[in-house]
Amino acid sequence: MLRNRQLSRILWRQIALSKTDYARPCSGILSPKPINSRQQCTATIKESYLKKFMNAVGWMDQDRTRLKLTGYVLYESVPDKVAYNEWFEKLELPDTFASWFIVTELHVWMLLVRYMAVDISTATGKKKYVKGDGYFVRNCIIEAQWADVGNRIKMLEGANPAIAKKQVTELSEQFQAALVGYDEGLSDDRVLAGAIWRRFYSMSDDVKAENVEKIVHFVRRQLSELDKIPSESLRWKPELKWLSILDH
Questions:
Q1: In angstroms, rounded to a whole number, what is the distance separating the alpha carbons of residues 138 and 133?
Q2: Which of 52, 75, 192, 247 is 20 to 30 Å from 59 by CA-CA measure?
Q3: Beta bridge partners of 120
Q4: What are the tens digits of pLDDT across the range 190-245?
């Protein structure tokens, strides 16, 4: 799948127009609007409230429920299947929570790129982005990520709730910046290498150039593998294979 900066701008323009910032941790399911008891009988109130609640959690929409499950399963494939030890060892990264998050973040970004592409339409001869299943799954992937990050931070030794909340907020800001940086590098290896250098190595002069190069090559190969998955399979039965950073 050919990607370019024009496509990148289309995607991020649509995301920016959304009132909800899904790159930030989700606080949970929104409560339904209050019902005016003066206009409805007791039986109707209970039924209406129940339906609204069930719709909010997805029980009344099987397709959306399945898509949400797809998003969570996709995210879980990252911490479950990625060989983090290889990344830490071969790329000279410290074995820390911060390194774990950066590696996870990169894999999540690649999932987002593939799923946002599902909603690209070329029916009129021009590429146009329309929010659909891909956008919904994308949001569910990010939601699952923040749920996992929050739990992992709480399990860190001596974790303080106030400090943990601050750390999640900082990670959220870094995550958003990383997405923009990686997205700008979709069609240019040099731009992508710069984004990786900033994110993985904090622009250190001591980093080995070949380490950055390995990550760039990995991203290109992994995106190519994701592109081979049919869009319909992505919606319902995604079968992902995460490549090793050691693969050539």
A1: 8
A2: 75
A3: 129
A4: 999 999 999 999 999 999 999 999 999 999 999 999 988 887 777 666 778 899 99
177-197 b/e with 16+ CB inside 10 Å = b? ebbebbbbbbeeeebbbbbbb
Which residue type is seen at 1? M
Contact 142, 171 (CB under 8 A): no
196 near 213, Cβ under 8 Å? no
Instruction: Please say whether the dihedral angle defined by the alpha carbons of residues 24, 27, 33 and 34, taken in this order, is positive or negative.
Output: negative
* Residue range 60-101, pLDDT digits in tens: 467 788 888 888 999 999 999 999 999 999 999 999 999 999
- Weakest-pLDDT range from 46-60, 101-115, 130-144, 211-225: 46-60
For residue 172, how many other CB atoms are within 10 A of its CB?
Answer: 16
> Which amino acid would we find at residue 210?
E
Q: Are strands 120-121 and 128-129 parallel, antiparallel or unpaired?
A: antiparallel
Whole-angstrom distance, CA of residue 182 vs CA of residue 112? 11
